[in-house]
DNA sequence: TCTTTTTACGTTATCGTTACCGTTCATTTT
DNA sequence: AAAATGAACGGTAACGATAACGTAAAAAGA
């Protein structure tokens, strides 16, 4: 095969049919493994297709079959190192199955999540994966319900609406508190991330339960953007308003990084004066000094599983609902 | 508009035509702003389309026009924080123009770049953006040449093949050396990244020239993967084999982060004993302690400009060739 | 041997849109 | 007033693949 390949060849199925001396229909059947062709014909067709370097036209195929072999992926902020890992996993799994990823990034609130989902659907993706949606339930269900397969990451939904890959943040939260208490910390504050976050709420449930189990309660709770800047502002506020604290648990690692900056600026040493726990275990977490104690979530795996689940829901009627991922406590130097 | 929207409505152009009392052709013309319809007809059609919530079928449209309103974007490693920024910029610009991004991630060498480009092309993207290609010129030109518009990021190419958005790494390299020399460093080693990197080679050219201008030369040059792990290994090697050095310049920030780890492990203090300079200015760079001195590249802008350039090349015959981005020295605490 | 089933194809119609080529009718030109 | 022009629209035929249905031959069953 030293002839230059051509992924956009103008060779049509009719050309292949002609070359193989059969009808286009037979070529279509053979190329889609639908049987109904003798071994020799199959060989002749395969040979001709290869010889002519035939590539099915995705538009024509889509027009007939209403399938695009494309998956829509919506992430809230690709700039947060958590999501590239998820994307990476999704990309791998999709690519193996011959699917491509149509990526959309929710830019803060400047463009609404709802619009982006619709844009993806309008492009006729075969299914859609939405990460950490902040849409109200009703809206989300309305947008997703009528069509196509869907999988939500870190967000619950009934099985008719979507499959789900969720992290058990309650257990994660619980482990964080247990660990801090074990280290002798009692005056713990929470940097809670965005109010509207589904995952944020379940963390809080876990915190409350585990505080209660230890006969403690949160010293303070502040909400903020899930970014380093947000964490820094929140931590600064905590340092000013809740002086006695000896630990902070952060919504995610980015927040924890911000909190570290704020502490450093205030001349407070970590972990001696204040212990710090994050969530996610983004790659930077272990590169910081002190390296960040955090609850690791298998990000790449989430992406992979989301795609697998989605492909399953695309292909079959009997739809799997999803899986739960349990975060793992990674103890480093901030506690 | 309290009727539920439907991004996949089965309303066809014929339905709209019927409702507006015209032919499908007229609807098509109006909806594509091709003129040839009176003001009132235009209004009637627009109204009907909106009323029925008509959405053009992208497959049918593509089949006729061979346009998908989709851009392929190939990045080498989405896990490197450099690329999400580029993607973010590209996504923004594409989204504004009504285009979607088809994302592909080159997983190390397990899947070849060439295949992924072809997969993108096979999906009939209207244009393709390739970041930091490591393909040999001949291969790259062969894959790109015959079709569609293309833009390369950090890689040169003749105008007939592709537009280019390149960083002037030569100047960047020069500024890094000047800065170190100014700080009194003379025994400088280079962590040079991957051998096959286009940008890596132009950095080396800049290093050589600037060393010469100062009457110096590199104490050592080691190549490595463009990752933290790669940088760590390279730095460890340098510490063992080139004992007297007082500075390291790294291929990118990830390498620099790895080098920091290696130095810390060896009990070497930064910047007192060894100064460190990175490239890119990824978000983590300023969050490290000591914060990393680096050459900032406008990543988001690169993504935006790449898309703009690509859309221009898609739309017009007379094709712009591209722009050069000059990195800016950001002095922090490692020098 | 004759009927029934199965295998291996081919025909036709269709998905929804737009390019190409007309046609009609009002307006301007001479 | 006749002819030329142009604006506003319509009819038809692809674009390329496949679903639905049809048919001829071979294989299986009676």
Report on this structure.
Two copies of one chain form a homodimer. The first copy, chain A, is of the alpha/beta class and 335 residues long. The first copy, chain A, has twelve helices and twelve strands. Chain A has helices at residues 13-20, 24-31, 39-52, 58-65, 82-96, 113-122, 137-144, 169-182, 198-213, 228-241, 253-265, 299-315; strands spanning 70-75, 100-105, 127-131, 149-153, 163-167, 188-191, 220-222, 247-250, 275-280, 293-296, 322-325, 328-330. Chains A and B meet through α4, α5, β2, α6 and α11 of A and α4, α5, β2, α6 and α11 of B. Chain A binds a DNA duplex (30 and 30 nucleotides) through α2 and α4.
Brief overview:
The structure is a homodimer of 335-residue chains. Chain A has helices at 13-20, 24-31, 39-52, 58-65, 82-96, 113-122, 137-144, 169-182, 198-213, 228-241, 253-265, 299-315; strands at 70-75, 100-105, 127-131, 149-153, 163-167, 188-191, 220-222, 247-250, 275-280, 293-296, 322-325, 328-330.
CATH class of the largest domain in chain A: Alpha Beta
Distance between the termini of chain A: 60 Å
Element order of chain A: H for helix, E for strand:
HHHHEHEHEHEEHEHEHEHEEHEE
The appropriate CATH architecture of the largest domain in chain A is: 3-Layer(aba) Sandwich
Can you give the mean pLDDT of chain A? Answer: 92
The CATH superfamily title of the largest domain in chain A: Response regulator
Major sheet characteristics of chain A: 6 strands, parallel
Radius of gyration of chain A (Å): 25 Å
Number of strands of chain A: 12
Structural class of chain A: alpha/beta
Uncertain parts of chain A: none
Overall geometric form of chain A:
elongated
State the helix count of chain A. Answer: 12
In the residues of chain A, how many domains can be counted? 3
Examine the coordinates and then state which fold CATH places here, giving the name of the CATH topology of the largest domain in chain A.
Rossmann fold
Query: For this entry, what is the oligomeric state of its chains?
Result: homodimer
Largest interface chains and counts: A-B, 59 and 59 residues
